[in-house]
């Protein structure tokens, strides 16, 4: 797809789509109501969008006001977001999983005037802290019968249901239509479109100011690099729209005229994939790991001839992929074998995804190389992307014809990405989309970037902004990486780096990914900074653990955080020893503890994007970690 002109604001995308791509009666959004998938046209959506805009203007909302959303993915998110965007207000989304204190901080730091709450649970959370937020004037529950939760509470802010907002707005639209159109035309590309608060792995969340220019340039330049998204495509949305990655996918879908179907939940995602048959799915590495683990488990546990066929098919798929990646054409024997493998094995796995996937995009974290290769063996293309909230987010993305597993692709057009020496600050290399060379191999260092993707700054935090954007306008990502075969390759986060007692630098992510190859391990957290050796907290996969040891749910409800069953510890230890052989001696786990249940957002241990909060975990389990350095649990 060629880059369109004069589409420099977020609300210009949908207006361009209905003017030049689809008629108003074309399906835009799809969601499930009770047991039925319901289609919503562009015309129906725009009617609600304009109604909400009229209501907001009547309330006195002005350009630059911050309006907050704490709501799951669905049509209501789209209506409210597009409505506030087209009058120049600023979307301040809040992760539904955040605590009440974190919500209160964001509402007050941003000075949000309204908040839309998607469920009774979220509405109750808002009610508890609403009177501590003096700028908040309206709370908008997006569900029926909300009065039973709020009637007996004295609130400073008014409460108006979304249905009433739309109903009242419909009667105001004609009166405010000139004002809506004028507001939309008055938006500058440099105006702030959204505040996205960082997940706070290392401190207080900061509001990242992303402009309309940041977001629209990111979309149009990403599509120059991956021109595979078409108006006939269907996205299945399940990652939170409060996160910049899914927000970008949502903008891409609107820009291209693709349909957006909303999954009911993560638990129902597999079912929804079969029902909706998406052509493009954007996901995080952990989901792909789970699909991989389940496919391997099902294939290898079938027994007899079925297991032999499964193993044979994967071997053929691997050979076929390697030949193709080398730029060669598979011979007739291998091609015939691949077709048989496709019919007997691969097609059945693909059917679980709906059977129409063109490709999947993985973001939000590093995808283990073996997981990417597995999907490549099946003939399912995984494109990896890389970026941060502060970079709008895409800095690099894989080209479909140049997949190199373990890398995150080519730099997108319009930006510069450099690798800088961590200590001396020497810049080893500066690369752009146009300087791409397939044989480029650079030194390793911090990844820095400048160009259209870099945020305007942190909201109300000029000092923090100055610490990450230097005098030459380079944004310092805090990620360590290099260029490998021209593609960007991420090693780890600079703040994650462990330096052992002997001065050896250890990046946890690639080490953890090595151990995560084990089908027994669900999560792993490496420890070892300033220590003599590496230890870990290991969480086994619940289903695998139950099946292997015949455990009941009572086992996981036990108040003891760590497992002391020697048989389970030895069972995990077998794979720790096995995969340690793939690592340097100073990277190997020498002791570990088995945690009964996964790290969770509710406990404040991980971020909404599943990244471990290192300081939180190390502080919370300090005594247990120290015990591993007293020789209590040793790996032979």
From TrEMBL:
GO MF annotation: an example: ATP binding
Native organism: Mucilaginibacter pineti
Record-given protein name: Long-chain acyl-CoA synthetase
Keywords noted in UniProt: ATP-binding, Nucleotide-binding
Superkingdom of this protein's organism: Bacteria
Pfam family, one: AMP-binding
Domain (AMP-dependent synthetase/ligase) ranges: 19-459
A cellular component annotation (GO) from this entry: membrane
């Amino acid at each position: 797809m060629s880059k369109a002109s004069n589409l420099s604001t977020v609300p210009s995308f949908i207006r361009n789509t209905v003017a030049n791509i689809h008629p108003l009666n074309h399906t835009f959004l799809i969601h499930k109501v009770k047991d039925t998938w319901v289609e919503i046209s562009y015309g129906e959506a725009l009617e609600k969008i304009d109604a909400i805009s009229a209501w907001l203007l009547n309330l006195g909302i002005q350009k630059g006001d911050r309006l907050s959303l704490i709501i799951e993915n669905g049509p209501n998110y789209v209506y409210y977001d597009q409505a506030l965007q087209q009058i120049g207000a600023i979307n301040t989304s809040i992760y539904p999983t955040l605590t009440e204190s974190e919500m209160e901080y964001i509402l007050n730091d941003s000075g949000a005037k309204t908040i839309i709450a998607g469920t009774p649970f979220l509405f109750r959370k808002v009610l508890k802290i609403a009177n501590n937020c003096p700028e908040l004037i309206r709370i908008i529950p997006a569900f029926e019968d909300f009065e039973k939760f709020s009637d007996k509470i004295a609130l400073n802010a008014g409460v108006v249901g979304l249905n009433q907002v739309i109903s009242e707005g419909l009667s105001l639209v004609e009166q405010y239509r000139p004002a809506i159109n004028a507001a939309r035309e008055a938006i500058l590309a440099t105006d702030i479109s959204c505040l996205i608060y960082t997940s706070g792995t290392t401190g207080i969340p900061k509001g990242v100011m992303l402009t309309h220019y940041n977001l629209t340039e990111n979309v149009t330049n990403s599509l120059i690099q991956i021109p595979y998204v078409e108006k006939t495509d269907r996205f299945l949305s399940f990652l939170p729209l409060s996160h910049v990655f899914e927000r970008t996918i949502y903008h891409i879908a609107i820009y291209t005229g693709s349909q957006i179907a909303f999954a009911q939940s993560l638990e129902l995602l597999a079912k929804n994939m079969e029902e909706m048959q998406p052509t493009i799915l954007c996901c995080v590495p952990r989901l792909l790991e789970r699909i991989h683990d389940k496919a391997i488990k099902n294939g290898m546990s079938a027994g007899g001839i079925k297991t032999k066929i499964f193993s044979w098919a994967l071997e053929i798929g691997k050979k076929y992929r390697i030949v193709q990646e080398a730029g060669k054409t598979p011979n007739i024997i291998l091609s015939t074998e691949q077709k048989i493998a496709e019919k007997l094995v691969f097609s059945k796995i693909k059917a679980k995804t709906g059977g129409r996937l063109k490709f999947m995009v993985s973001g939000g974290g590093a995808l283990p190389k073996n997981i990417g290769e597995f999907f490549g063996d099946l003939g399912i293309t995984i494109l990896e992307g890389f970026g941060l909230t502060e970079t709008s987010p895409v800095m690099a993305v894989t080209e479909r014809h140049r997949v190199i597993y373990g890398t995150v692709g080519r730099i997108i057009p319009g930006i510069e990405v450099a690798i800088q020496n961590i200590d001396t600050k020497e810049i080893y290399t500066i690369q752009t989309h146009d300087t791409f060379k397939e044989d480029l191999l650079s030194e390793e260092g911090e990844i820095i970037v400048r160009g259209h993707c870099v945020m305007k700054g942190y909201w109300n935090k000029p000092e923090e902004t100055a610490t990450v954007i230097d005098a030459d306008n380079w944004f310092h990502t805090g990620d360590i990486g290099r260029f490998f075969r021209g593609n960007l390759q991420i090693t780890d986060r600079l703040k994650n780096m462990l330096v052992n007692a002997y001065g050896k630098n250890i990046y946890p992510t690639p080490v953890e990914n090595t151990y995560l190859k084990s089908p027994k391990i669900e999560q792993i957290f490496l420890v070892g900074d300033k220590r003599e050796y590496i230890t870990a907290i290991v969480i086994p996969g619940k289903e695998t653990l139950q099946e292997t040891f015949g455990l009941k749910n009572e086992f996981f409800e036990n108040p003891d955080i760590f497992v002391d069953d020697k048989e389970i510890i030895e069972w995990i230890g077998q794979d720790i020893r096995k995969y340690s052989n793939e690592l340097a001696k100073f990277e190997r786990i020498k002791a570990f503890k088995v945690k009964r249940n996964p790290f969770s957002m509710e406990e404040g241990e991980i971020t909404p994007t599943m990244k471990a909060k290192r300081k939180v975990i190390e502080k919370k389990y300090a005594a247990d970690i120290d015990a591993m350095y007293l020789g209590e649990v040793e790996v032979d």
